[in-house]
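A favour, since you know our structure tokens better than I do. Go ahead and set the record down below.
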Amino acid sequence: MFQKMCVATLACFAVVSCSSQGYLSPQEKKYQRVDAAAHQCSEEVKEKTIDLVAKGKSTHSRWTTVKYVLPPDEEFTTQRVRVVEYRTSTILDDGDTGRAWKACMHSKDALVPELTF
């Protein structure tokens, strides 16, 4: 009997925990979409850079983050700052730092005003 109560209690906690994480504000959903795109674009720049280096090209690549500023809303009265991945590659950027990453983000409709460089 005690085991059944423990299992039932754990099941209730699991249901409540999962359901409370189910709601995401529109701002949070947008951030998650941009964050996923930033990760994909960083990986794309990295892979293209690795390919060029393997072919004997000389380049410098840098991984860092950029700020993503969430404006105040009904839940938070102040700005919240998060970060997303950002990668540069001198050979791919062709003199315009971050150009390849930004082009990738633009193609994913994820180059948003909330990003601050």
User: Anything to note?
Assistant: The mean pLDDT is 85. The longest strand covers residues 61-70. Residues 26-54 form the longest helix (29 residues). Residues 25-116 form one domain.
